[in-house]
Amino acid sequence: MTRMLIIGPPGSGKGTQAERISERLGVVAISTGDIFRANVKGETPLGLEAKKYMDNGDFVPDSVTNKMVRDRLGETDVENGFLLDGYPRTTAQVDYLDEILADGDEKLDVVLQLTADDEELVHRLLGRAKETGRSDDNEAVIRHRLDLYHQQTEAVVAKYAERGILTRVDGIGPIDEVTNRVMQAIKAAQAA
Ligand code: AMP
């Protein structure tokens, strides 16, 4: 049973690594970005609301995001653990997640941060934009998403570091090599 978070700037490969961790640990990976994108595609009311923010690289408001996460974490497939990817991104979301977990008498085991420098990330994201045509992958929006990460999400990382459950992994390098580092870091954190 593992309950964990993966945090990283846009382009750090957290979605890819999240899928691999999920397979290896047998826990369900939940990506708030993926849930939003599925809703945008399906043109649901949630998707129509989220799209306004996502296209500009802004955070979807907490009033929408928090409830979505609470509902998702209430489903039965998370009983054996979960890996949250892309949430929490603000300290207010950390507080909200604390409440959800406390309500279920649960706690986080590991928070994994993937690191990479900004210029490498911009380069990767511009490459991804060509491949996937994601509407939030153009340079101005990419830089804005990185700024938000530095302004807001680094404070989230600091909170978990204070709690002693943060482990950092260098996200630069071949995907398999990063996965090896990630799995080793999780093992070490769980043994600590
Ligand atoms: P991601 O795929 O994790 O990069 O997320 C894509 C977009 O979804 C972000 O740029 C935000 O617009 C939105 N999003 C995902 N997770 C959150 C969150 N925890 N809080 C607010 N907005 C989010």
Structure description:
By secondary structure, the chain is α/β, with parallel strands linked by helices. It has one domain (2-191): Rossmann fold. Helices cover 59% and strands 14% of the residues. It contains eight helices and five strands; from the N terminus they run βαβαααβαβααβα. A five-stranded parallel beta sheet has the order 2-3-1-4-5, with helices on both faces. The longest helix is centred in the C-terminal third of the chain and has 24 residues, at 139-162. The radius of gyration is 16 Å and the shape is globular. It binds adenosine monophosphate (AMP). Adenosine monophosphate binds next to helix 2 and helix 3. It is found in: Cytoplasm. Residues 31-60 are annotated as: NMP. Pathway: Purine metabolism; AMP biosynthesis via salvage pathway; AMP from ADP: step 1/1. AMP binds at residues 32, 37, 58-60, 86-89, 93, 134, 145. Monomer.
Descriptors for this entry?
192 residues, alpha/beta, Rossmann fold, five-stranded parallel sheet, 8 helices, binds adenosine monophosphate
Summarize the structure.
Catalyzes the reversible transfer of the terminal phosphate group between ATP and AMP. Plays an important role in cellular energy homeostasis and in adenine nucleotide metabolism. With 192 residues, the protein is an alpha/beta fold.
Parts with pLDDT < 50 across at least 5 consecutive residues:
none
Main beta sheet, described?
5 strands, parallel
Question: Looking across the biggest beta sheet, what order are the strands in?
Answer: 2-3-1-4-5
Tell me the number of helical segments per DSSP (H or I, 4 or more residues long): 8
Cα gyration radius (Å): 16 Å
Approximately how much beta-strand content do the residues carry? 5-15%
Q: How many structural domains can be distinguished in the coordinates?
A: 1
Q: What's the order of the H and E elements?
A: EHEHHHEHEHHEH
Give the overall shape, derived from the CA principal axes.
globular
How many β strands by DSSP?
Answer: 5
Bound molecules: adenosine monophosphate
Please tell me the overall pLDDT.
Answer: 95
Helix coverage percent: 55-70%
CATH superfamily (homologous) name: P-loop containing nucleotide triphosphate hydrolases
Structural class assignment: alpha/beta
CATH class: Alpha Beta
- The CATH architecture can be given as 3-Layer(aba) Sandwich
**CATH third-level topology:** Rossmann fold
N-to-C CA distance: 16 Å
Subunit structure: Monomer.
Catalytic activity: AMP + ATP = 2 ADP
Function: Catalyzes the reversible transfer of the terminal phosphate group between ATP and AMP. Plays an important role in cellular energy homeostasis and in adenine nucleotide metabolism.
GO molecular function, one term: AMP kinase activity
